[in-house]
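WARN  no MSA supplied for this record, continuing single-sequence
INFO  ligand: 3-acetylpyridine adenine dinucleotide
INFO  echoing inputs
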Amino acid sequence: MAEFDVAIVGAGFAGMYMLHRVRGLGLTARVFEAGSGVGGTWYWNRYPGARCDVESMQYSYQFSDELQQEWNWTERYATQPEILEYANHVADRFDLRGDIQFDTRVAAATWDEKGDRWTVRTDAGDECSARFLVMATGCLSSANTPDFPGRDSFEGATYHTGRWPHEGVDFTGQRVGVIGTGSSAIQSIPIIAAQAAQLYVFQRTASYSVPAGNRPLSDDEIRAVKDDYDAFRAFNSLMPTAIGSKQPIPEVSALGIAPEERDRIYEARWEEGGLPFLGAFIDLLFSPEANDTAAEFVRAKIRATVHDPKVADLLAPKTVIGCKRLCVDTGYFATFNRPNVELVDVSETPISEITAHGLRVADRDFEVDAIVFATGFDAMTGALLSIDIRGRDGRQLRDAWEAGPRTYLGLGTVGFPNFFTISGPGSPSVLTNMIVSIEQHVEWISDCIEYLRDNGFERIEATPDAQDAWVDHVNMIADFTLFPSCNSWYLGANVPGKPRVFMPLLGFPPYVEKCNEVAAKGYEGFALSTASDGH
Ligand code: N01
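INFO  complex generated
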């Protein structure tokens, strides 16, 4: 059996950087990747209009100044093909491919108590052994396709936005049904609508969306950032979401100023575009009344854009803004003014069936040539729990997390020695610029492995007390916010039967401080042991 110091699952941005770091420690590593190439999310999500809604100058690695200086983004928000090109550039530049095994899905990983090692088994039945197991499986990588009755009877083409064909899809002249109105749908619908003969959009919950304000980046703009990239990164890392760049840091409550002034601030952020809209005031995610001022501002924008008042009303969300992930769009709401686009409300009367020729809602049949499932992901835990992971005493991770994920810092889990999750549940992850969170985790994990090695420790595992306290802390922070008030994927509410637990942690800077403190105190809250300690 092949032996490595570190086995890494996933060759997205997390897995690639993890490999680079452990190589830098002189360790051996093997990365297992289900896809045929690097890029993770950006390898799989090739749907029309896919682009990152974190700005490109921020959505990139900062660990190498040469890399960030040499790479040139072309637009304010990078497209999926451009991000994938960047991921490939990184893989080539740091010569990563030699240690990545593509087209290989990890099926199981078992902790061998006697040897203090993980045995990793692939779906081809091959096995290897590694001292450490690092899960770089991504937060939004396990596609969720609801089990609509008759789903397999459909005779046309079906697509999931998160598993899009590499060769692309041309919907010209077709009748298309899109199920879902989250970020993926909101990006793809305007483009599909422009191609299709007829588009039906099946909406269960309306989404808030803010214009992207996308545009080409000018040389001057790029130069200004690159001239002081460190300061730019440092400023962003002080923001709760690790993004924010040019926007002023909010200091007041949305309720503490005159309505005209408040609307002026919202208008400026709306014009600027993008996710920082939600950072306009300090209390938008904490006070329902404050939140409603932002929600009403967006609803008014939707009403002003969509001509048919009934359609506008359906598109205007009634929930808390930001409770589900805010969407960022280019022409989404205006798409519903097109004569070939129909919004189908499935909030009260769900899609009852998928038939050979389309979708049925109540007694109406929608005949389509293609169905696009923009139905999201089994987020944060789906990819981890799809692998048969067994820790101490053969305990399965699925059992340990039966009532919801339990971690210490989102990095380690009781009962699973030498096992790390990059951007795991209980860490800021999806509430931040993912690449920033990924880098912070990768560096913490590689520093930890180095510390263990240099101090003669063989294993590390979160302690029950530290984990319990951390889970309580994550829940307490969530309960301070408005996040628990809607059925979001942050809570697992989009997957039937999944425990309702708020999985990410709000607040990047205090989290980083805590991680640094834990490391400085010799990995406080983790039990470190030498081989001779226990067996
Ligand atoms: O998935 P989603 P997504 N019947 O879960 C609907 C990131 N992302 O792929 O809200 C009918 O948000 C579901 O309805 P409801 C980003 O973090 C980033 O769009 O559950 N409808 C919802 O409308 C994002 O949040 C970027 O009532 C059903 C939709 O499907 C995350 O990925 C781009 C249904 C799923 O929306 C996920 O986004 C894209 C059913 N049975 C994504 N089941 C960028 O950075 C589900 N739905 C640009």
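The two ends are 23 Å apart (CA to CA).
INFO  checksum written, moving to next record
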